[in-house]
Structure formats: C-alpha cells, structure tokens
C-alpha cells in the first residue's frame, strides 16, 4: 500500500486544514459548544457544499466514491479543530449502514439528503447496561402489524440524537432470537420522546424512548439475518475514522505544547531548552507516530477478511486510546496550572480525547476483542 497522499488527497488535506484554521478557531468553537444544539448548522452546510459529507458514498446517490483515505484526512483535520458537528455519526456510521443495507428505497431517500446537508442521521443502538455491545435489543422491540410495525423501547447515549431528523433504531423483531433488526424512525414521530444532555467535550447526546411508534413496512432497513454484520462493518469504519480524529487531537496538543515551552521562560531561558522536557516531547512524538502507523495499518486491512479487518481496527483503537491519554496528559502537565483553566485550549483537547477514547469501545474492550479474534 502506498502511504503517500496523491495530489488530490494533498489538496483535500490543505483545504480542510485551512478551513479549520480560518473558520473553527478556539473562541468560535466555544460559542458553538454553548449553543442549544451544541454544533453549527452553518458549518454543517459548509461541509456539504465542500463535498465532505459524501466522500466515500457512491456516485449514484450523489457521493464522490472516494477511498477511506479521504475520510481519514478530513477526520484528522476535524480532530485538530475539535469539530462538534456529528460528521462521524451521520456521514460515516449511519450513511454506511444505509448504503450497504440493500434497501434501494431508503438509499435514494436518505443518502442524497445527507450529502446535501439537508438530513442528519443518528444511530440509536445503545441501551442501559449494554456497554459497548452492538445490536442491543434487550429493551427495544418491534411487533409486526397489518400495515407495518409497532416499535417500543428505550435507547441511551444517542450522539446528536436530539438534532437528528431520522434515527436508525435497532430492535428485536417479533421476539425473534435471530438478532437485531434496523428501522428508520422519524425523530418527530408520535410516541418518540427525547431527553438531551451535554457531553464532556461540549457535544450533545440524548436518551430516546419509543412508545408504540407506528412504522410502515418500508421503515425496515435491515432484517435480523443481515443487520449484525452490517452494524459490525459500519461501526468498524467509524471506529477507524475516530482513530484519525484522535490522531488530529494528539497532533494539535503536540503543536500547542511545543509552542508553549519555547515561549515560557524560567531561570532566564525558555523551558524548552531543559533536557527533561525535551525527552517528554520526544516521547509524545513517538506516541503520535505509533498511532499514525496503526491508522495506516487499519486502512490497509479494510479489504481483508472480516476477522483480520476487525483485529487491525481494534489494535488501532487500543493504541490510539493509550497514546492519546499519554500525549494529552503530558500536554497539560507541561503547561502547568494554565493547562487546567477553562480559557486555555489544551484542557479542552483532553476532554475531547477522553470522550473519543470511550466512543466505539475503550482500550480494554478493544484489547479483549483483539485477543478473542486471534
């Protein structure tokens, strides 16, 4: 695999990074985080106009049919900017589920709207006590009726669930033991109630309850026979995209910390001249490059058999989680007391890292998953 970016990929990288520098400064981000939805609809529309919401989606729905590398490039830059818009959830996780579901009706109805920035999707899968399990249907079920389905249950920690237009909901179908089914549900439908709350990094999530929600037959996106594999594939891609985002967070912390220790003077000289601090920066650099290598490894395994692909993705997520903890903690420590203040950005990167490390499974989860698939 050639790890050098093509000319087009380099142009994309430069464009995204320039956009983040000009349009997503730290103070602008703080204002966005304090807003009611926790993200900017204006920025979301900009991403759509720039084509970033349809990078890997096929051309027949208006996408650009790019490789996963382009997604990784964008997510890495988004990590540097601590971007709050739910691009990962809508344009990677949910869009992949819809695209590979086999439902042509839902593909044509949902994906062009996602690409154009007119539609936000959220996956409602997690339930109370489910931890990082996929296909959680203990408390959510759908009963077949004469005209469609009747959905009841509750989902927790639905990222951007309060702002989503449509929800992809996993549910047990007619008390079947085969596995989960996936339904498309309008968040504003009768019987759907939503309680939103703020997460550690300033973004929003929601707990959603479904009380006898009436769905028509076309709402069934994926049957129990195909849904588990579909969820696993889409979540794997989203997990790898989150590794790219974590890498961007780490790179930003490295740059901020390097600038600080060059400017901070103690005992008549910049503290960056002290050998002990240079050693710490070197260790941080090694951790960043380890994560970059594991990201590349994960991308190289995307076309491999499912077991090999899952192991590579879990390895990348585990390494990224451990490395980001170290880099962000060292960044705060090298800043001293300033690193803990609300007004300074390095502490916000630490919060972003903490949330990203838990998303799609933490270090222990992915180490166990890696060992189980050996």
Automatic annotation (TrEMBL):
The keyword Cell membrane does not apply. This is Acryloyl-CoA reductase (NADH). InterPro entries: Acyl-CoA_Oxase/DH_mid-dom, Acyl-CoA_Oxase/DH_mid-dom_sf, AcylCo_DH-like_C, AcylCo_DH/oxidase_C, AcylCoA_DH/ox_N, AcylCoA_DH/ox_N_sf, AcylCoA_DH/oxidase_NM_dom_sf. It comes from the Bacteria. The keyword Flavoprotein applies. Belongs to the acyl-CoA dehydrogenase family. SUPFAM superfamilies: Acyl-CoA dehydrogenase C-terminal domain-like (SSF47203), Acyl-CoA dehydrogenase NM domain-like (SSF56645). Residues 6-117 form the Acyl-CoA dehydrogenase/oxidase N-terminal domain. GO terms for molecular function: acryloyl-CoA reductase (NADH) activity; acyl-CoA dehydrogenase activity; flavin adenine dinucleotide binding. Keywords: FAD, Flavoprotein, Oxidoreductase. Pfam families: Acyl-CoA_dh_1, Acyl-CoA_dh_M, Acyl-CoA_dh_N. Its EC number is 1.3.1.95. Its cofactor is FAD. Residues 241-370 form the Acyl-CoA dehydrogenase/oxidase C-terminal domain. Residues 122-213 form the Acyl-CoA oxidase/dehydrogenase middle domain. It comes from Paraburkholderia rhynchosiae.
